[in-house]
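Hey, I was hoping to borrow your eyes for a little while. I've been puzzling over a protein and I'd love to understand its fold better. The fold is given in discrete form, as structure tokens running alongside the sequence. I'd be grateful if you could look everything over and explain what you see. No rush at all, and the record is pasted right below.
>
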Amino acid sequence: MKHLRFFKMRIALLALAAVISTSLAKPEMHPLSDEYIEHLNNKNLPWKAGRNFDRDIPLSYLKRLLGAKTMKVRSGLKTIHHEDNGEDLPKEFDARKHWSNCKSIGVIPDQSGCSSCWAVSAAGVMSDRVCIHSNQTSQLRLSAEDLVECMVEGYGCSGGFVEQAFDFWTDHGVVSGGEYNTTGGCKAYSMPGCSHAHYDTSLPKCKDYPSPKCNKHCDKGSKLKYNEDKHMGNSSYIVEHNERQIQLEIIKNGPVVAVFGVFSDFFNYKSGVYTRDETAKGIGLHAVRVIGYGVEDDKYPYWLAVNSWNDHWGDKGVFKIMRGNNECGFEGEIVGGLP
């Protein structure tokens, strides 16, 4: 039955990708136009739209921010099922509060002009879980750069698979490293955070980056040695496609990665609980870190997720998306692992 559920989940994600591909051929209002933002705010949606990106940014750039891929056949990762005695779960759960000594959980990353959401979200979850499962004593950050460069040469800024990132962690290990220009780890992220909007002058303008080559050396100035700094995962897995199972996984083991379909309205998210507007057009697949869940206004159950477009996007880099109905395929591919 678990294999059948996984097969149905995979078919649903592939079908979502097909919908996204065909819907791109039927544009209407430009997704970054004032007209479209006003349209969304007039729809009485449970969320508010606003400007996150410059209206002149091409759709090709927005699509480049969505680098998650989904596998056509089952990966080597097992699907886990938590024993469930039916006990009441907390109405709300926020990993930042529950494991408040784990600094990585509160980090809002910036993937820059690289299709690396798959690596940034995966490395973030790995780092969170290293801290959580050390009883909040280890602040080790694992390197998204190592995944972008060396997981499978050629993916990098052309997109990649979250499942393979976790496989890489357990099979080869990931070196230490944090955000751009940080020190103390082996490999910091090599691309700077950037501004997606002309009115935001606190960050440099965004540009497209090619995939970096695999460099099996630590950053210049680091005292660490690449081959000696590899940190291994103990296990990696897919969480069963079930709302309660995902809740149990987050409560027990920490944040997870979700792969979901992004539509044209999502780029304008500012606050509230996101649900896709029926007029929105498909753009691509994205990977984000899910750090909790809750209920807004006693009627909108949501997942709490961290995006990788810096803290100038959305609600300071975080968003809520409707929980329990597999919104945009959000519950269809949830990946985690243990250090």
Observations:
- The chain has eight helices and ten strands.
- The helical segments are 2-23, 34-41, 59-64, 95-98, 117-132, 144-150, 162-171, 243-253.
- The chain has one domain: 2-338.
